[in-house]
Amino acid sequence: MVIYGVGLLAGCMLVGLVTGDVLGTLLGIDANLGGVGIAMLLLILVTGILKQRGHLPESTEQGITFWNAMYIPIVVAMAASQNVAAAFSGGLVALLAGALAMALGLLLVPVLTGHRREPLPSGDASTTSPAPGRTH
Amino acid sequence: MNDSIMTVFDKYHLIAAFAVIGLTMFLAHWVSKRFTRGRLHGSAIAILVGLALAWVGGVMTGGKHGLADVTLFSGLGLMGGGMLRDLAIIATAYGVRFQEIKQAGVRGVIALFAGVLISFVAGAVVAVSFGYTSAVDITTIAAGAVTYIVGPVTGATLGASSEVIALSIAAGLVKSILTMIFTPLTAKWIGLDNPRSAMIFGGLIGTTSGVAAGLAATDARLVPYGAMTATFYTGLGILLAPTVLFLAVRALV
Fold it and tell me: Do B197 and A76 touch (CB under 8 A)?
């Protein structure tokens, strides 16, 4: 059932957030330390085990993949409900931070690649593009 | 009739938000295909439209929640709020397989960590040079330079202001859009013509929409290799930015 997937997702989220909260309290910081990240790891782990044992039918999967696909639309809604008008005056920070991050990333590509080269397989790769819900 | 529209939109605000965002997504993808031939990813255009709408809403109402302050669109605050956003972000981890990262090899993993780290440091340096002094603000803007998801998630967990969170989204968006534009232009120069460098590129830049669109404009066959490592980037950023990196920033300022 679809709700099993949604329930599993919700369960992972709650466990992750509680763990993050406890971590924050332990370290004396008034914030949730990595709760979302912990929940992501938990979801990968739990669904991996369930799938291996054949306990993850397609209908259950749909409960998770629906929210996966809703991710960019939700991000758009989030962007639309931020205090952009106030941020506008400081927009140069965003421009420079984003540009510098991109430039440094591109510059490091040849450094990390080294000299070894692998040939590129022929054929069209458009069929193996990432799922639309995973664009971030 | 106007009254009826107002009443329904106000009463069913979340449903209205779904409709508004659905329309925005449709228009953004249409513009992407029609005017940029897919070079600028539809989702990046949609987020840009979202930020523009938030600006309009803010100027119209003088409020702090962008378009969500306009009664007609109050559902946007719920749809884009922390609860549903975190649920959807966690859902994106579904289907990630750690075996994939093994294929990328040690250099792929190094690229991932280096990519998150240099983007974060770049963002932090810019934030500090613009006079931001609180660890929460610096971390949030720096996390935005990682991706436009890591920024708001980090900002929300650390309790940053909406203004700083908006900046962090904008920083990530600038990075994503510039990646789409500059990847094909610099591809030859940085040796972006084989699977190995594509995987390293994906790990270093990480913003999936930017990586996918940039590689597609360079050579479509490179897309899956770049996407393979980029998939892990946001997850790694969400794990590191509000924790280790925030603690590091807090220790430094």
Answer: no
Q: Is the dihedral of CA B20, B26, B32, B34 positive or negative?
A: negative
Give B-chain residues touching A88 at CB under 8 angstroms: 55
Q: How confident is the model at residue A119 (pLDDT cuts 50, 70, 90)?
A: low
Cα separation, A74 vs B46, in Å, equals 11
The span from the CA of B106 to the CA of B214, in Å, is 24
Q: Cα separation of B63 and B69, whole Å?
A: 6
Determine the residue of chain A that is closest to B197 in CA distance.
Answer: A113
Q: Where are the domains of chain A?
A: 1-81
With beta carbons under 8 A apart, name residues in chain B contacting A128.
223-224
State whether A43 and B90 contact (CB < 8 Å). yes
Query: ipTM greater than 0.95, yes or no?
Result: no
From chain A, pick out residues whose CB is under 8 angstroms from the CB of B196.
Answer: 113, 116-118
Per-residue pLDDT of A13-50, as tens digits, reads 999 999 988 988 887 777 777 788 889 889 999 999 99
- Residue B204's SS3 state is helix
CA atoms within 13 A on the CB side of A12: 27
Q: Which of A72, A83, A70 is nearest to B46 (CA)?
A: A72
Q: pLDDT of A56-93, one tens digit each?
A: 999 999 999 999 889 889 989 988 988 888 777 778 99
Domain ranges across chain B: 2-80, 98-252
* Cross-chain residue pair B118–A82, CB shorter than 8 Å: no
